[in-house]
Design a protein that fits this description.
alpha+beta, Metal Binding Protein, Guanine Nucleotide Exchange Factor, Chain A, Peptide Methionine Sulfoxide Reductase, Chain A, 2 domains, Multifunctional fusion protein
């Protein structure tokens, strides 16, 4: 006679639906019952995409505060959301699926397929470096867990029952994903992935811009300009002369006969310092733009106030700022700053470079005016 106690019929009836649901979940998580045989999803571009951004995971306290309970349970506690009752199981819009925690790009809509499991399924991740696979022996079976690398979010599992060409099925929780439509990729910082959808990647933003400015003796000008936040490099030299007067020397320029101006070449980061800001907040404050061919004790056309532009955009900005400064009433006389195209640049002799760094307390007539 068996010593096991019999389960009452009423208890069995109550447990039966729960058991069926559990079997359904486990079977769906281990077998792609509805995967179309021989189906080959559209694949993303094979050329590796260089996404140089850093993706970080917020603190657990921050995640508890900001994530919905289901999302926190799935991503941080290895939970599983219900099949067929989640955001992306039947989602067909074109775009990227990124980690809801860190934002790192994980999967493409072009690698998504109908598995019939009730969860989003993909044949491959966007980039292997953003996905980590781990052995999972929970629930009485051995599976391969998938996690995001930087966010360390639990995503789901990967199985070897997917369609060609990979034969893999990444069974992923919608709660672990955030979707970025293809038309919003560039605006949200994922423009590098646009070629994977047959679109041109946005042109990278310029990280440097160059300006050529003159305002008297270049020693004092350079000393102030090199200290401005956003300025990367400065060099003193000569520009603004006739095209046939190439490579002048200081001894030639100082006579005023060559037509060149003592100038400073400024290389700056336009994301930190705009050309407009460089002119209005700094250039027009560090010298007197109303004295013609003179700054302090330095007299001659080589000491003129001038902006030598490198593009139509710089020319327009220079004209706008000059007009604004002229109308501001800060100067008792009209602004006479020359605005002209930049000519050939000739670096000044070595002893002129960083002169006031090498000679603290040396001559200058430049200072910032309020």
């Amino acid at each position: 006679m068996s010593s096991a106690r019999a389960v009452s019929p009423s208890v069995a009836r109550r447990l039966w639906p729960v058991a069926l649901a559990l079997v359904a979940v486990l079977s769906a998580c281990t077998e792609a019952r509805g995967a179309p045989p021989g189906t080959t999803p559209a694949t993303a571009m094979s050329t590796p995409v260089k996404d140089g951004r850093k993706f970080t995971k917020p603190s657990d306290e921050e995640l508890r505060r900001t994530l919905p309970p289901t999302v926190y349970q799935v991503t941080q506690k290895e939970g599983t959301e219900p099949p067929f009752r989640n955001a992306f199981w039947n989602h067909h819009e074109e775009g990227l699926y990124v980690d809801v925690v860190s934002g790192e790009p994980l999967f493409s809509s072009r690698d998504k397929f109908e598995s019939g499991t009730g969860w989003p399924s993909f044949t491959k991740p966007l980039a292997k470096e953003h996905v980590v696979e781990k052995r999972d022996a929970s629930l009485g079976m051995v599976r391969v867990e998938v996690r995001s690398k930087e966010g360390d979010s639990h995503l789901g599992h990967v199985f070897e029952d997917g369609p060609k060409p990979t034969g893999l099925r990444y069974c992923i929780n919608s709660a672990s994903l955030r979707f970025i439509p293809v038309n919003e990729l560039a605006a949200k910082g994922y423009g590098a992935w646009l070629p994977a959808f047959g679109r041109a990647a946005p042109k990278p933003e310029a990280t440097t811009e160059t300006a050529y400015l003159a305002g008297g003796c270049f020693w004092g000008m350079e000393d102030l300009l090199r200290k401005i936040p956003g300025v990367i490099e400065t060099e003193v030299g000569y520009t603004g002369g006739p095209k046939d007067a190439e490579h002048p020397t200081y001894e030639e320029v100082r006579t005023g006969a060559t037509g060149h101006a003592e100038s400073v070449r400024i290389v700056f980061n336009p994301n930190l310092l705009t050309y407009e800001g460089l002119l209005e907040k700094w250039f027009f404050r560090m010298h007197d733009p109303t004295t013609l061919n003179r700054q302090g004790n330095d007299v001659g056309s080589q000491y003129r106030s001038a902006i030598f532009y490198l593009s139509d955009a710089q020319k327009k900005t220079a004209e706008t700022v000059k007009a604004r400064v002229n109308a501001s009433g800060k100067w008792p006389r009209p602004v006479v700053t020359q605005i002209a195209p930049a000519g050939e640049w000739t670096p000044a002799e070595g002893y002129h470079q960083d002169y006031l760094v090498k000679n603290p307390g040396g001559y200058t007539c430049h200072y910032l005016r309020d």
